[in-house]
Design brief:
It is a single chain. With 380 residues, the protein is of the alpha/beta class. The chain has 2 domains: 260 residues, Aminopeptidase (3-Layer(aba) Sandwich), CATH 3.40.630.10; 112 residues, Alpha-Beta Plaits (2-Layer Sandwich), CATH 3.30.70.360. The chain is 34% helix and 27% strand. It has an 8-stranded mixed beta sheet with strand order 1-2-4-3-5-16-6-15, sandwiched between helices. The protein has a 4-stranded antiparallel beta sheet with strand order 10-12-8-13, with helices on one face. Strand 1 and strand 2 form a beta hairpin. Helix 3 packs across helix 9 and helix 7 crosses helix 9. The longest helix is centred in the C-terminal third of the chain and has 21 residues. The radius of gyration is 24 Å and the shape is elongated. The model has no long low-confidence stretch (mean pLDDT 97). Bound molecules: nickel (II) ion. The site of nickel (II) ion (NI) has 4 residues, from loops.
Length: 380
C-alpha cells in the first residue's frame, strides 16, 4: 500500500476511535473495530477468549522466534474540550492519553508487516491491550496467554513535548513503579480541652507526615529518585473533640528496584515507631501496583539504529513518574518501551490533549522496521 493511502486510512481509523472512546475494561466497540480492521487485511486473530482487547499474529514466511508489539486501547473518564471536528461523542470519555494513536499505529505496523512476510524470520504478535489506565489490562491479557512463546516485547507511549519524527530512548528505568499506602493511627479520643487524658492521632499524623519525607532525603542514595506523597488525611468530626483515630493515604513513585523494596520497610518503621512513642498504634498497609518500566539493554542498539535507519531523530528519553502496566510484561520477558514524538499541545490526561496525526505513519514504520530488526537479532 502506498504510504499516503495508508496514512489516510490510519487517520480515518484514529478519528473513528477518537470520536467513540471507551474507558478501561469496557472497550467492546473498540475491540470490534480492531478485529474488523485486522480481518480486512487477512491478519490472523488469536482466540484467547478475551472480552475486551485483541491479540493477533503475523507469521513470517521463514521460521523463527516470536516477538510482541503492544498497544493500549482504553480512554479516560474526561470530558473533551478540544473543539476538534472529530471530538468525543461520548459523554465523560476521551482519548486524552492518546491510546487511540497507539492502537492505530500498531494497526499500521500490522498492515506494513503483512506486506513484508517474506522478510520476516519469525512471528510478530500484536497485543491490543485494554485497561491500561487502571493497570488491570496487562494482567488480564497475560492470564489469557498473550505472551505464550513470546521472546521479547516492544511498545511506546506518545510524548506531546517531542516533535513528530523524534523518538525518546532510554535504557533501564523509564517510568516509575507505583505503589499505594494507607496508614491507620489509633489513639484515644477525648475532650479537646483535656488532651492529657487523650492520645491525639492528629498530632501524631503531623509528626508522621514530616518524618516520612526524611526517607527520600536521608535514607535513599543521592542517585535514587523517589516521591512519597501523602494525599489524603481523615480524622475527627468537630472542633472540640479529639478523635480516636486517623487514616492517611498516599502513593510512592520510585525508579530503582532496590529503593522500591526498601521504602515500605522504612515507612513501617516510622509509622510504628512514631505512633508508639506517643502511646498510640500505627499500622502501615501496602498496595503494590505496577513496577518500573525497565528497558532491556540487549535491545538499546537496535531500538536506536532502527530510528536512524528510517531518518528519524533519536533523543535520550526523559523519565516519567507516571506508571505504565507495560512493566508487567517486562517482568516476564525482555522488552523496550519508547517515547514517540507527537508534537502535542497539552500534557497527557488534559481535556485539550491533541496529537499531530503525521506521527501515525512514523510510528507504523518504526515498529514495522523494529520488528524485522529485532527478529534478525534474536535469530543470530
Ligand atoms: Ni497513556
Amino acid at each position: 500500500m502506498q504510504t499516503e493511502t495508508l496514512h489516510k486510512q490510519l487517520i480515518s481509523y484514529r478519528r473513528d476511535l477518537h470520536m467513540y472512546p471507551e474507558i478501561s475494561m469496557k472497550e467492546y466497540e473498540t475491540t470490534k473495530k480492531i478485529k474488523a480492521w485486522l480481518e480486512k487485511e487477512n491478519i490472523e486473530i488469536l482466540d484467547l477468549g478475551l472480552e475486551v482487547g485483541v491479540v493477533a499474529e503475523i507469521k513470517g514466511n521463514h521460521p523463527g522466534p516470536t516477538i510482541a508489539l503492544r498497544a493500549d486501547i482504553d480512554a479516560l473518564p474526561i470530558e473533551e474540550k478540544t473543539d476538534l471536528p472529530f471530538s468525543s461523542k461520548i459523554k465523560n470519555a476521551m482519548h486524552a492519553c492518546g491510546h487511540d494513536f497507539h492502537t492505530v499505529s500498531m494497526i499500521g505496523t500490522a498492515i506494513l508487516l503483512n506486506e513484508r512476510k517474506d522478510e520476516l524470520h519469525g512471528n510478530v504478535r500484536f497485543i491490543f491491550q485494554p485497561g491500561e489506565e487502571i493497570a488491570l489490562g496487562a494482567k488480564y491479557v497475560l492470564k489469557a496467554g498473550a505472551l505464550e512463546n513470546v521472546e521479547a516485547i516492544f511498545g511506546m507511549h506518545n510524548k506531546p513535548d517531542l516533535p513528530v519524527g523524534t523518538i525518546g530512548v532510554r535504557e533501564g528505568s523509564l517510568m516509575a513503579a507505583v505503589d499505594r499506602f494507607k496508614i491507620e493511627i489509633t489513639g484515644v479520643g477525648g475532650h479537646a480541652g483535656i488532651p492529657n487524658n487523650a492520645i491525639d492521632p492528629i498530632v501524631i499524623s503531623g509528626q508522621l507526615i514530616s518524618a516520612l519525607q526524611s526517607i527520600v532525603s536521608r535514607n535513599l542514595s543521592a542517585f535514587d529518585n523517589a516521591v512519597i506523597s501523602v494525599t489524603k488525611i481523615e480524622a475527627g468530626n468537630t472542633w472540640n473533640v479529639i478523635p480516636d483515630s486517623a487514616v492517611l493515604e498516599g502513593t510512592v513513585r520510585v525508579f530503582q528496584k532496590e529503593a522500591r523494596e526498601k521504602i515500605p520497610q522504612l515507612m513501617k518503621r516510622i509509622v510504628e515507631g512514631i505512633a508508639s512513642s506517643f502511646g498510640a498504634k500505627g499500622v502501615l498497609k501496602w498496595y503494590p501496583s505496577v513496577s518500573t518500566v525497565d528497558n532491556s539493554p540487549i535491545f538499546t542498539d537496535i531500538v536506536k539504529e532502527t530510528g536512524l535507519q528510517l531518518g528519524y531523530e533519536i533523543v535520550e528519553a526523559e523519565q516519567s513518574p507516571a506508571g505504565e502496566d507495560f512493566a508487567y510484561y517486562q517482568e516476564l520477558i525482555p522488552g523496550y518501551f519508547v517515547w514517540m514524538g507527537v508534537d502535542g499541545t497539552h500534557e497527557w490526561h488534559h481535556p485539550s490533549f491533541t496529537i499531530n496525526e503525521d506521527a501515525l505513519i512514523v510510528a507504523s514504520n518504526y515498529f514495522a522496521t523494529l520488528s524485522l530488526n529485532a527478529l534478525k537479532q534474536l535469530n543470530k
